[in-house]
């Protein structure tokens, strides 16, 4: 689950990390009020969306008068901001962050993430920070430095110094940086983050080091024990179908094809998507109804699939291992009756009580196409979708 920049910075502050002073605002007048409270003669007004690339897309503006704060806030709020990271749909700007400006001498890149290969938290840093880090990583990977942390020891002083030297920091900036890394590590672990990205981490004109931007993602699997973070969920920033799936507790990922998929088990769901591709089609989503699917979860999953206007056929592929096929069939029948389904539905049931399941579907009087095998099911779905 992603957080907004202003929320991420508040969390950094709980770890005693200095950040630029800033106040979030949901309307232009509140933005002006925020600027007045911060004082000074210049401010940055930053659109708050769950995506980076805002600067290049006009979502981050430096202004020098309260009138300009009002004008920029008004122009950003209430519209969708499209950046390279969330194109083509963009995300709605419901809040802006009004922040003091800092005199920037250098822009560095620093992030913490879970390195899956080493199964450890790693720091990734680069002297080439700012708005083009993706390009840097792609074209000049040698400019990206990594330090992997031992889970028992956390980040060690020598690792901080190694990165500080590599980033060519001196004096106060060197000290700030070496103090910052263990603080970030503690924030990362204490909040069960999966990503903490600071781009840019700036060296100011007076040689201090501060995070100017901050992107945080919380591990979804830890939200049950991070209740205060879970409350920061902002469904306006995620795909409406994914938000509905999250509320219904089904694993759904929206994709761009036209065949809706409902499958039990992530592995089988992946295989189903592969077969659809093999038959020349494209899946509209990934959906794993889980091992313990009930008629209700099947019905919910079905409704979520059909929220997508691109869906031209639905392929249901269930292997009844723990879950019984007749239970799944009931769920399908219930959903098809409740939702006015206009697209062809292809069903492949295999495993426990498969025959009973097929019989229920055949006797339901609904226009459901039964497939004998997975390949046939994929072929049928692709045919019907065209
Ligand atoms: P994004 O990564 O979405 O483009 P950032 O928060 O990194 O947004 O802001 C983009 C750029 O705007 C930064 O690289 C920096 O140059 C400038 N900027 C952002 N916040 C401030 C600030 N408080 N003071 C001065 N410049 C800023
Ligand atoms: Mg940034």
From TrEMBL:
- Positions of the ATP-grasp domain: 9-229
UniProt-recorded Gene Ontology molecular function terms: succinate-CoA ligase (ADP-forming) activity
Residues binding ATP are 46, 53-55, 99, 102, 107
Q: Which family does it belong to?
A: Belongs to the succinate/malate CoA ligase beta subunit family.
Cofactor comment: Binds 1 Mg(2+) ion per subunit.
Per its UniProt record, the required cofactor names are: Mg(2+)
Q: Which NCBIfam families match?
A: PRK00696.1, sucCoAbeta
What Pfam families does the entry give? Answer: ATP-grasp_2, Ligase_CoA
Q: Please state the pathway this protein functions in, per its UniProt record.
A: Carbohydrate metabolism; tricarboxylic acid cycle; succinate from succinyl-CoA (ligase route): step 1/1
- The organism is Thiobacillus sedimenti
Keyword Signal on this protein? Answer: no
Where does this protein hold Mg(2+)? 199, 213
Protein's name in the database = Succinate--CoA ligase [ADP-forming] subunit beta
